[in-house]
């Protein structure tokens, strides 16, 4: 019985991971397009360096290859939950602005927000399979940037999208690590580098 | 008392004979050959508008005793021009390397100093033993949006020059080309070629960082390539090859998500399977020669007329060739 359960869990995990990887790929592609549109709309240089933005989860990580499966899932989940809030804030601000061009941007933002939510759901399901369960959503939410001026908000938006694009790449990698056969769920670290 | 002296091409050089007075009687030699007095101003040697050929050992001897009073090795060269720097990660996510060269030689020794800055952090780029003008660096962080700034400074005795590259972690990712590309005909399939290859050995973790591939192929006699992009797997069967034509095939690789395509792999050649020619009659041989001159290639024979399986005797082969001629003529019309 236990063996059947574990093999069914393995299959489920693999299925969730491969769907998650595809979703991450699509999300990244859409975010990159959105980045260009957003930068153009807001009159910003898409390649401009943006300082680390408060409340935006940074995708950058040290010793990525040493992370456990559970660490990966938890960090990803925390990030996408934060992005869900940040994108919702951006959408709200966008919708306050009028104009057709802005409406297209709002639609694109909404589409990405949907994907972010879907991905967060995938992660929650994967954590449930780890018998860990996802952590509750209480806790610090990204601060509402009401005190920021318009330009600062635009720059922040650029920072959010840019970081999200990085996360989408990282997430696909993280999920691939999870699908490695020798990798246990929570305990075993990732494989030593292949020769 | 011997040392090295570096001078720019085109400079005027004055060499003193050590501590000898200006009016001392001396003899100068260049690489053992006496230098004419016309180049002397007192005991000083004057070389005007020096060029590269004037590099060498210069010695000064006291007039009567022939004691060696001074010796120097003159190296004529140029200060360095702006170096050419390139950085690339062919072993992502382990790290990246930077390599450099000078656009024009300086003819004198140069030293290179490279600095790599990531945000506020200075990273060490370890110089490779071979090739010399290269260093490698391990990634401390992955998935960072902070750019890397690499500055290379070239210095020699006559001057210095530097250049800076700024880039993202993702943009410099470029795998090495796929390895061990093999193309084989498929038995009993005149239009197929089976191609297989391996991930470049420098790519450390193809499981977590899978590569996608781009295959290109063309018959040798045509200029236009066919392309196929493959998102997984390290093999592909070409199914639209022209029968009997030798093909050239190459493969390139790219990380699935980031970076740029590798260079093309070494080219391999292959010809699709053809049936061993049966005993040809003289007539058939003549027909073959004629058809070769009227068209640049034979369109694939239709199976109805020239079904290889149906060919039995030499008479049937002659029919095939004739039919082929007709098709070739049509082929010429449609090129």
TrEMBL record, chain A:
Question: Could you tell me which species this protein originates from?
Answer: Chordeiles acutipennis
Q: Which family does it belong to?
A: Belongs to the CNTF family.
A single BP term in Gene Ontology: positive regulation of axon regeneration
Q: What does this protein do?
A: CNTF is a survival factor for various neuronal cell types. Seems to prevent the degeneration of motor axons after axotomy.
Protein name as annotated? Ciliary neurotrophic factor
Q: Which Gene3D superfamilies has this protein been placed in? A: 1.20.1250.10
State the UniProt keywords alphabetically: Cytoplasm, Developmental protein, Differentiation, Growth factor, Neurogenesis
Pfam families cross-referenced by the UniProt entry: CNTF
Automatic annotation (TrEMBL), chain B:
Main location as per UniProt: membrane
Using the record's annotation, list all stretches that form the Fibronectin type-III domain.
177-277
Give this protein's Gene Ontology molecular function annotations.
ciliary neurotrophic factor receptor activity; interleukin-11 binding; interleukin-11 receptor activity
Gene3D superfamilies associated with the record: Immunoglobulins
Where it sits in the cell: the answer is: Cell membrane
Q: Which InterPro entries match?
A: FN3_dom, FN3_IL27B_N, FN3_sf, Hematopoietin_rcpt_L_F3_CS, Ig-like_dom, Ig-like_dom_sf, Ig-like_fold, Ig_sub2
Q: Which UniProt keywords apply?
A: Cell membrane, Disulfide bond, Glycoprotein, GPI-anchor, Immunoglobulin domain, Lipoprotein, Membrane, Receptor, Repeat, Signal, Transmembrane, Transmembrane helix
- Keyword Transcription regulation assigned: no
- Which domain of life does the protein's organism represent? Eukaryota
Cellular component, GO, one term? external side of plasma membrane
Annotated signal sequence is: none
Cited SUPFAM superfamilies: Fibronectin type III, Immunoglobulin
Matching Pfam families: fn3 (PF00041), FN3_IL27B_N (PF24031)
Q: Which GO terms describe its biological process?
A: positive regulation of cell population proliferation
Transmembrane parts of this sequence: 310-333
Concerning PROSITE patterns, the annotation shows:
FN3 (PS50853), HEMATOPO_REC_L_F3 (PS01354), IG_LIKE (PS50835)
Which residues belong to any copy of the Ig-like domain? Answer: 10-60
- Tell me how this protein sits in the membrane: Lipid-anchor; GPI-anchor
Q: Which family does it belong to?
A: Belongs to the type I cytokine receptor family. Type 3 subfamily.
Query: What's the name of the protein?
Result: Ciliary neurotrophic factor receptor subunit alpha
This protein's gene is called: Cntfr
């Amino acid at each position: 019985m236990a063996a059947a359960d574990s093999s069914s869990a393995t299959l489920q995990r693999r299925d969730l991971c491969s769907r998650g990887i595809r979703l991450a790929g699509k999300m990244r592609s859409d975010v990159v397009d959105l980045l260009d549109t957003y930068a153009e709309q807001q009159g910003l240089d898409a390649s401009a360096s943006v300082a680390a933005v408060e409340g935006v989860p940074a995708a950058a990580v040290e010793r990525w290859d040493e992370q456990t499966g559970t660490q990966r899932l938890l960090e990803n989940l925390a990030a996408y939950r934060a992005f869900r809030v940040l994108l919702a804030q951006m959408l709200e601000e966008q919708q306050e602005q009028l104009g057709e061009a802005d409406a297209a941007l709002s639609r694109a933002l909404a589409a990405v927000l949907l994907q972010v939510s879907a991905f967060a759901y995938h992660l929650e399901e994967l954590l449930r399979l780890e018998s860990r369960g996802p952590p509750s959503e209480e806790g610090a939410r990204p601060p509402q940037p009401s005190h920021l001026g318009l330009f600062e908000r635009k720059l922040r938006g650029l920072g959010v999208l840019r970081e999200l694009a990085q996360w989408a790449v990282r997430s696909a990698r993280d999920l691939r690590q999870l699908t490695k056969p020798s990798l246990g769920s929570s305990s075993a670290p990732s494989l030593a580098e292949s020769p | 008392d011997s040392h090295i002296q570096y001078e720019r091409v085109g400079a005027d050089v004055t060499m003193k004979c050590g501590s000898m007075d200006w009016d001392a009687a001396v003899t100068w030699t260049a690489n053992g050959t006496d230098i004419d007095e016309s180049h002397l101003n007192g005991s000083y040697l004057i070389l005007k508008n020096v060029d590269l050929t004037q590099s060498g050992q210069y010695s000064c001897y006291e007039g009567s005793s022939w004691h060696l009073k001074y010796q120097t090795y003159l190296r004529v060269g140029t200060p360095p021009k702006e170096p050419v720097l390139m950085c690339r990660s062919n072993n992502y996510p382990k790290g990246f390397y930077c390599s450099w060269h000078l656009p024009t030689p300086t003819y004198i020794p140069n030293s290179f100093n490279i600095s790599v800055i990531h945000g506020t952090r200075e990273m060490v780029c370890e110089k490779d033993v071979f090739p010399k003008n290269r260093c490698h660096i391990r990634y401390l962080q992955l998935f960072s949006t902070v750019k890397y700034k690499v500055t290379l400074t070239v210095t020699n005795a006559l001057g210095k020059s530097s250049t800076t590259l700024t880039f993202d972690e993702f943009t410099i990712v470029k795998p090495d080309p796929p390895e061990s590309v093999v193309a084989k005909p498929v038995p009993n399939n005149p239009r197929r070629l089976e191609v297989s290859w391996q991930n470049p050995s420098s790519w450390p973790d193809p499981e977590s960082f899978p590569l996608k591939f781009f295959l290109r192929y063309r018959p040798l006699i045509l200029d236009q390539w066919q392309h196929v992009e493959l998102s997984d797997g390290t093999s592909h069967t070409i199914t639209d090859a022209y029968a009997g034509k030798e093909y050239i095939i190459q493969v390139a690789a790219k990380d699935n998500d980031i970076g740029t395509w590798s260079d093309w792999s070494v080219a391999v050649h292959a010809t699709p399977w053809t049936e061993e020619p049966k005993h040809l009659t003289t007539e058939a041989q003549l027909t073959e020669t004629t058809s070769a001159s009227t068209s640049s290639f034979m369109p694939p024979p239709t199976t109805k007329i020239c079904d290889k399986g149906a060919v039995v005797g030499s008479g049937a082969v002659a029919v095939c060739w004739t039919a082929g001629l007709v098709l070739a003529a049509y082929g010429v019309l449609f090129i």
